[in-house]
Design a protein that fits this description.
single chain; seven-stranded mixed sheet; 7 strands
Length: about 200
């Protein structure tokens, strides 16, 4: 049983080239995303467009950890549930959501997470939270760093609709990282965030 709508993703994979063209998305390194095992995709975060963009370039479905408030938004809430998103209670350590993510990774799924926990200002990065470090430590799964640029121009904080065509969007996927799972969660998260910045 899939934790997402397989039919929905089958349709999505057929139509997503259209969105890549409209949003002017350029990408490289997607071959670094493992196809046959559970893994963690860790990306910087500057726009609500980021999860959508990553799912337009990934060779497999990404199940994102998303703030719980989004699940109550009409239509969007239904859509992200069908996409297999995991609700996360912000401003406190949500053990239940982390356990769910660990379970899905061990079952062979691809989990997407933004280590910063919230959107950063244009051109900046926030200090990472320890959640991604915990996932790496508990699963020892491959963690793939990803850097996204341009989404904060196309769909900045406070904007109601994307500004299509204002900027290209760039996605660079790095090679899976070798991480010492015995390190403290916070140190693992910091290491991953530094690798994202290097891309």
């Amino acid at each position: 049983m899939f934790p997402y709508s397989k039919t929905g993703y089958d349709i999505w994979f057929k139509i997503r080239p259209f969105f890549r063209t409209v949003l002017r998305i350029e990408f490289e390194g997607v071959e670094n995303i493992p196809l046959d095992k559970g893994c963690i995709l860790a990306a910087n975060h500057r726009s609500n467009l980021d999860p959508f963009v990553l799912n337009t370039v990934s060779p497999r479905p990404i199940l994102f950890m998303a703030k719980q408030e989004l699940f109550g938004v009409p239509l969007l809430g239904w859509f992200i549930k069908k996409a297999g998103a995991i609700p996360v209670k912000r401003n406190k350590r949500d053990i239940a959501s982390l356990k769910k993510a660990v379970e899905l990774i061990k079952d062979g799924h691809c989990i997407g997470i933004f280590p910063e926990g919230a959107r950063a200002k244009p051109g900046e990065f926030r200090k990472p939270q320890s959640g991604v470090g915990l996932l790496v430590s508990k699963t020892e799964a491959p963690v793939v760093p990803i850097r996204i640029e341009g989404t904060d121009i196309v769909y900045p904080v406070g904007s109601k609709i994307p500004k299509i065509g204002k900027s290209k969007i760039y996605v660079k996927v790095g090679k899976p990282l070798t991480v010492d799972s015995n390190m403290e969660y916070s140190r693992i998260s910091e290491y991953i965030m530094e690798e994202i910045k290097r891309l």
